[in-house]
Amino acid sequence: MKFTKLSLGTAAAALLPLAALAQDATEEAAEVAALTPAGTEVGFILTTFMFLVAGFLVFWMAAGFAMLEAGLVRSKNVTMQLTKNIALFSIAAIMYYLIGYNLMYPGDGWTIPNVLGAFGTTGLEDVGVGTDVVDLTYASVGSDFFFQLMFCATTASIVSGTLAERIKLWPFLIFTVILTGLIYPIQASWKWGGGFLDANYGFLDFAGSTVVHSVGGWAALAGALVLGPRLGKYKDGKVNAFPGSNLTLATLGTFILWLGWFGFNGGSQLYMDTAGNVADISRIFSNTNTAAAGGALAALILTQILYKKVDLTMVLNGALAGLVSITAEPLTPTLGAATLIGAVGGVIVVFAVPFLDKIKIDDVVGAIPVHLFAGIWGTIAVVFTNPDATIGGQLISIVIVAIFVFVVSLVIWFLLKAIMGIRVSEEDEYMGLDKAELGMEAYPEFSS
């Protein structure tokens, strides 16, 4: 079909009002955008929404830890690991409400009077609160509390896997009360609550390679030293492998953790009230993902070279080590740098696991290499991509947190050992903690 000059002119005339309307709409949209900058109700809503979404993504990591640990322990101990994981999350939720949140954010700087005055339960906004009584420059208290709680619970999950298959249930849960109610929030306040690591040393730890992951690793290491290795693990100068019950579950757990980490790191941007913040969050997601991939591939290639066969458990932990490594600074690296940072984490795992066996520290799921060693590496690696970081500030902060958490944890483990005992009997360990401690099994049809 062909159009005449007249028909074209008529069509153009008809379109002119529409073009004018489109221009008016564009100008109106620009005016609206100018009227809704950061610090308005819209910004408050968006940041609050981000915290809630990121928070339930990090909550899903609790399922990831449960599945990972259930897959890497022997069949006779699976129910115990599942029990510990749901119990530790519940304890963290209550303890962080009772004292942890206020202890972690004591107010105007971390001082003894502020901290002592912070012992108290968390309070939320009133029902139906109006914009005249909320701080529109940030987010709702409820969303911030919910998001920060998930980090606290993650720290306890790290300890659970290391001490599996030989620790009693109740001493572990008592330690979890202290870890989530006191140890974690106190040291986290030193960085995220206006404390001295932030103010005096310029410590940078974006989402917690040290504040969360290394803390869990130090607490786990202290417990492993006091608890000792599993029976038969190190015998006649040999390291005896105890294969996990279900590598399918372990792999599922790793993917769940990988998914949850997007909320872990992305939500730590803390604001979603400007285009710049949203762009940064998307950058964080991409860097987080590629670091995990780098860690997994590094472990895959390295185990093929060293052992002539790929070790799936190393690959899974390599991915997790990559995630831990990028957590201290997921924003500033390029995709290439993030991949390399994660890959180094994967390499660390491959060498750290046999190193711990060599010195007879029994870590059932490899949590110490993943969360402690890779956490230290990730915290140091910040200086390579963020010009605001200093190697001195990073190192001294790592050491301060390490001494505090390790020494306090060691004292608590020794006290629990002396008061109530922390290890099951040899008979119970051989039988399995499912039957001995709980009287139920995850796979009764196989044992029967």
Percent in helix = over 70%
Contiguous low-pLDDT stretches (5 residues minimum) are: 1-22
Strand order of the largest sheet: 1-2
CATH superfamily: Ammonium transporter AmtB like domains
Content-based structural category: mainly alpha
Cα separation of the termini:
81 Å
SSE succession = HHHHHHHHEEHHHHHHHHH
Characterize the overall form: globular
Q: Report the C-alpha radius of gyration, rounded.
A: 25 Å
Outline of the structure:
The chain is mainly α. It has helices at residues 5-35, 41-72, 78-104, 112-117, 141-162, 169-192, 196-201, 209-227, 247-266, 275-307, 312-327, 335-358, 367-385, 391-419, 426-431, 433-438, 444-447, and strands spanning 234-235, 238-239. The radius of gyration is 25 Å and the shape is globular.
Q: What do these coordinates show?
A:
The chain is mostly helical and about 450 residues long. The chain has a single domain, classed as Ammonium transporter fold, CATH 1.10.3430. The chain contains 17 helices and two strands. The protein has helices at about 5-35, 40-70, 80-105, 110-115, 140-160, 170-190, 195-200, 210-225, 245-265, 275-305, 310-325, 335-360, 365-385, 390-420, 425-430, 435-440, 445, and strands at about 235, 240. A two-stranded antiparallel sheet has the order 1-2.
Write the layout of secondary structure elements.
Elements: H1 5-35, H2 41-72, H3 78-104, H4 112-117, H5 141-162, H6 169-192, H7 196-201, H8 209-227, E1 234-235, E2 238-239, H9 247-266, H10 275-307, H11 312-327, H12 335-358, H13 367-385, H14 391-419, H15 426-431, H16 433-438, H17 444-447
Antiparallel strand pairs: 1-2
Helix pairs in contact: 2-3, 2-5, 2-9, 3-5, 3-6, 5-6, 5-8, 6-8, 6-14, 8-13, 8-14, 9-10, 9-11, 10-11, 10-12, 11-12, 11-13, 12-13, 13-14
